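Two folds, back to back.
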Amino acid sequence: MHNRMLRHLPVPLIALLAAAAVAVALVGHGEGHATADGDGVAAPPRRALAAGTRPVPATPAGKLRFGLGPGLDSAHNSPLAPDLDFLSTWYNGPNDLSFLRKWKADLIPEVYRSGHGIHLIVWLDGTGEVGTVQTAHGPACGREYPLSSGFLDDARELDDARELASIFSGPANGPALYVTLFTEFQTYPCHPNAWATTPDTTNYYLTLQDQYLAALDIFHSGAPNARVSLGWGGWQSRWDDPVAGAGRSLITHFADVLRASDFESFQAMGTDSNAADVRDMTKALGQYGPVMLAHYKSESQTTWESDIHALLSGDAPSQLSRDGLFAFSFMDAANIASPAALSLARGAVQSHGVHSTL
């Protein structure tokens, strides 16, 4: 239930499916600055940015908060759990709600009582259909579910985003609920990783921003302990194309959304070395707020061990902290299956981490 697509290339590819235009109810748009479309016609005003951000828990300089996934059940039982600050889990689409509703009554309160925070990762590139939907910004081509009223609709009293906030809600003065929304969102449009490839790509990103800001408000209202971020694919810093708004230039198109977020987050999962991506994305996003490496793993054990030495030994954690990183989550236990790897991870966490009970 926690399966997902691993990204191994700097620029991941999306298989495009032919689909007819489908009208989908979308979030409303509040006060904001109108933009102009390609014909110079004023587009609908953007949703007003969130009223205020919630600070992440204070983290001592040079220290990091460590987490582990892929599910609350497995992470809670991991031998690494006593040394962790939070446990990570995934929402991959509406089918996950059936077991999450059960967790609401037992496992989630148990995790909070143990002193651990919870990190909810929302990955929606595997949900529903890919096609063209009509939005307030115009036709948008991409994954439909993230833009749909099923995920979020201001006119409804209950949608999937509101239910997720209710399921994972904890006391305001208790351990944090970190939310990484739309992780790897650059892959959701039909044309990934660039703002202006086509008008329907731009419209998709504009509508996704609206959905994100609405979901941020929902989590703030429904979960007193929630802190919310937008989840970037860590490959985005590997190149730059200002004309297309691609590579590093895509980040600037989300600047207002990033500033409205409680923290920033990205993943790193390449089979080649991830160390440069982690450093570069931390610096790029750190100018907007505190940064979390939301899910890190490698299918190459050699690469994983090399990355751990590069990122979590010597002065490296302190430098990452200075650049804005406050949290680091291992995606799953696959890379710590051997005693030697578990010892390496535990040593890094104990040396550079903030314990959950502090």
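---
second:
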Amino acid sequence: MFSLNNSNLLRSGFELGKGEKLFQDIERDIIKVVFWEKCVTQSHIVSATRIPQQTVSRLLKSLTQHGVIVQTDTLIPNKKGKPGFGIALNPDYGFTFGLAILLDAISLAVMDFTGKVVYTHMQLMSDMSINNVLKCAQKLVEDISAERDIPSEKVLGMGVGISGFFSSMDGKMNTHHMLEEWSQVDIIDIVSQHFQLPTWVVNDATGAAAGEGVAGIGREYKNFVYMFVSAAFGGGIVNNGDVLRGTYGNAGELGDMLPPKLYAHPNLELLKRILKKNGVAVTSIYDLHDNFDPDWPGVEEWLFKVQDSFDLVATCCSALLDAEAIIIGGHIPKELAEKVIARTEVYAQFRRGAKRPMPKLVVSNIDNFPVSIGAATLPFRELCL
């Protein structure tokens, strides 16, 4: 059974009885350890969770019988005793779908129970109406379910990432003007009723940050800020491994740090316009990953226009959040992100010959589909982590 979460930001797509959960809290504690560390021993779980050894042994037996975890053939060394066989999650226990509703496209990602991305696809679209998006997404879901032999009873839920901000506590969003029909409607209800799945919704940048923390370089950091560079500029925050959502679900709106009359917003639509002015044709910002040339005329102009913006946002994030890392991702090409990082200055006071510890600036290693991959992590984060 699926859990029912009554919050406005994360709630199940259909009603269940009170108290019903996919896993009990104590089981989730064990699953979290195995998920983040991928392969561990029973003694390590006892040490990490502080759950009594006998209880851990009993729960592991139950989780194994239900196909949630598997024992591997690998012996893992134990500093305090005999080596133990590895314990890992069963990738086929369950799957999640992630749907990105972009400004002119949708993308779909599928994850197995270990958090591994097993499928991604993007489809450019001229009609982003609710009916057309659901129709196209339904076709993608049906096709991948048949191709990968994913039975409906093994689908844990669907996450959705969409451009916009939550406008109130009711979970409705003020979406980008190119997604007019999706504005101020109950997206969770619409999507969950269509697919008959528990559904969770975040804005696109928060979703991408969530995905970076599971499937990207963000997994190496407990605390990081994610800069989402796409058709617009935004961000997400991961604190102690969890996605920070804030009061309404709008935490990480980095673009709002930049008064538009004073700072250029560092987005790829601006880059596209500058490139076009310089005679470089770019059909879609999503093609830049495969076709980008750092020597194109106009690239340096874009960097000059937006570098102060990156400096300001990075400095504010460093000062306010004391993050381990600032990750530049979204749909920005890696080579361009590396150029941004090389020029970014994070200000901090210099005292007694030293600055305070500064965050690392790194490039996302999720090359494509950051929003749908991130959306696919939402059911995992809610139900299991």
